[in-house]
Amino acid sequence: MPKVAIIGAGLAGSLLAIYLAKRGMKVDVYEARGDMRNEKVSAGRSINLALSDRGIAALREVGMDEYMLSEAVPMYGRMIHSVAGETTLLPYSGREGEYINSVSRAGLNIALINAAEKYEGVAFDFSERCIAFDCDRGEATLSSGRKVTPSTTIATDGAGSAVRDAMLRGGVDRFDFSQKWLEHGYKELHIPPGPNGEFLLEKNALHIWPRHKFMMIALPNFDGSFTCTLFLAHRSTTDLDEPAFDRLTDNKAVIEFFDREFTDAVPLMPTLLEDFFTNPTGNLGTVKCFPWNARGNALLLGDSAHAVVPFYGQGMNCAFEDVRVLDQLIENHGTEWETIYKRFGKLRKVNTDAIADMAEENFYEMRDATADPVFVRKRELETKLEQTYPDYFSKYSMVTFREDLPYSVAKAKGNAQDQFLMNVCAEVGSVKELDISRIHEEVKKIG
Ligand SMILES: Cc1cc2nc3c(=O)[nH]c(=O)nc-3n(C[C@H](O)[C@H](O)[C@H](O)COP(=O)(O)OP(=O)(O)OC[C@H]3O[C@@H](n4cnc5c(N)ncnc54)[C@H](O)[C@@H]3O)c2cc1C
């Protein structure tokens, strides 16, 4: 029975442990942090996440989809909040049954660890960090001083991967690596439930306060609360009116900023100041690298191979899709690790590059375009097209609801569609003026 080491018991590593155990493999998982089941989860690293079809498809294969969805809050669209506090709902799709789900990161991670541990061959070692990796010998050095040499190692140790670092520092010849930081950071804030546990904003929506240079979003939690995330530039520019984290340094500045920009949210945030000054400001970036394997000795998977910015809500979904694709390759090639890893890289790289690009582009869409009337008309038109024609899928729908379509196809087709529809909507004042059937015919020609 081959013994596989997984470095990192985050979302991808824990799911992967289940998949490998189902194939009868022995799996040792080494996780730098303590066992999250016994520890209070610290704020600051996305308390909730949007789970969509690609992620659900991977959970379904190990029988975890229904369990997770029973604790999720469906979000049917984006609720846009204007500066004056007016709201508009932009549905994610014109079809029923196409929505995204707000799930607890910790809840999902714990459920996956619990499910993996039920297999006899799976062992988790918490508080055991991988501090070095020998790519030639396939040997991991752990923080306790132990050295382990399994049949192969799969590194799911996230955006700051130690195994990737070893590949970069000479472990793999001609290893390509790039890391691009966004000038914006993020901070999590809190809207508690009402006195009777009720949701104080529309429950079934992802709320957005788009303000061009920055934005705040809020996702519902199962307990009636919302987790807000403020995305804002770290540093101010010379423009004195431009807000940035480095200008929000005292209570007065924070209150003034929130009162001006997020008027309707402020009365719902009783711990705003405490949250603002206690919770960390996180960084956001895109990591690209290649190849993802050190021969048959190690593979990077999930954020360690391709961290993306969170604006398409796809990082975890993409990592889960990685696991599914890898499992299919194991089905076809057994334990010929080098063959599997090379094919995995070939199949996935083009798609993870595509979602990385779309995620960056979507930041600008969320903070700018959702407040642009042409874009709002385009979303309305797309919803109409989806309601009327079952064969029409917007770019968002292709990425989010079509696990059968690779991200690269969704990107190419979606961008061409977007360009055409934005042009159409720029020329009219209302979607009612448009001949939907003619537009559908034109869109079909795009391919
Ligand atoms: C603000 C924010 C919002 C997001 N929202 C969404 C969303 O809505 N939908 C979505 O799909 N994705 C979202 N993402 C992305 C998602 O969080 C990641 O893509 C996902 O967590 C990747 O899973 P992973 O297992 O590869 O990495 P991680 O979840 O980062 O897990 C890595 C694990 O490895 C451990 N580790 C690290 N180094 C070592 C080491 N040297 N040795 C041993 N263990 C180690 C870590 O402690 C951790 O447990 C969001 C991300 C952010 C930052």
Mind telling me the C-alpha Rg? 23 Å
Do you know the CATH architecture of the largest domain?
3-Layer(bba) Sandwich
What ligands does this structure carry?
flavin-adenine dinucleotide
**Total tally of structural domains:** 3
Mean pLDDT: 95
Which of globular, elongated, flat, extended, rod-shaped describes the shape?
globular
H/I helix tally: 14
Structure write-up:
- The protein has 14 helices and 19 strands.
- With 447 residues, it is of the alpha/beta class.
- It has 3 domains: 3-72 and 103-179 and 285-363, FAD/NAD(P)-binding domain (3-Layer(bba) Sandwich), CATH 3.50.50; 182-283; 372-446, no CATH class.
- The chain has a 7-stranded mixed β-sheet. The protein has a 6-stranded mixed β-sheet with strand order 8-2-1-12-19-18, with helices on both faces. Strands 3-7-4 form a 3-stranded antiparallel β-sheet.
- Helix 1 (11-22) packs parallel to helix 9, helix 10 (337-367) packs parallel to helix 13 (407-426) and helix 12 packs antiparallel against helix 13.
- The longest helix has 31 residues, at 337-367.
- The mean pLDDT is 95.
- The structure holds flavin-adenine dinucleotide (FAD).
- Flavin-adenine dinucleotide is lined by residues 7-13, 30-33, 46, 49-50, 129-130, 156-158, 162, 186, 229, 302-303, 310, 313-317, 319.
List the helices and strands and how they pair.
Blueprint (H helix, E strand, L loop, with lengths): L2 E5 L3 H12 L3 E5 L17 E4 L1 H9 L3 H5 L3 E3 L1 E5 L5 E5 L8 E5 H13 L4 E4 L4 E5 L4 E4 L4 E2 L3 E4 L6 H10 L4 E16 L14 E5 L4 E6 L5 E8 L17 H11 L10 H7 L3 E9 L2 E2 L3 E3 L2 H4 L8 H19 L3 H31 L5 H16 L6 H7 L5 H20 L9 H11 L1
Parallel strand pairs: 1-2, 1-12, 2-8, 5-14, 12-19
Antiparallel strand pairs: 3-7, 4-7, 5-6, 9-10, 10-11, 13-16, 13-17, 14-15, 15-16, 18-19
Helix pairs in contact: 1-4, 1-9, 2-9, 9-10, 10-13, 11-13, 12-13
The structure holds flavin-adenine dinucleotide (FAD).
Flavin-adenine dinucleotide binds next to helix 1, strand 3 and helix 9.
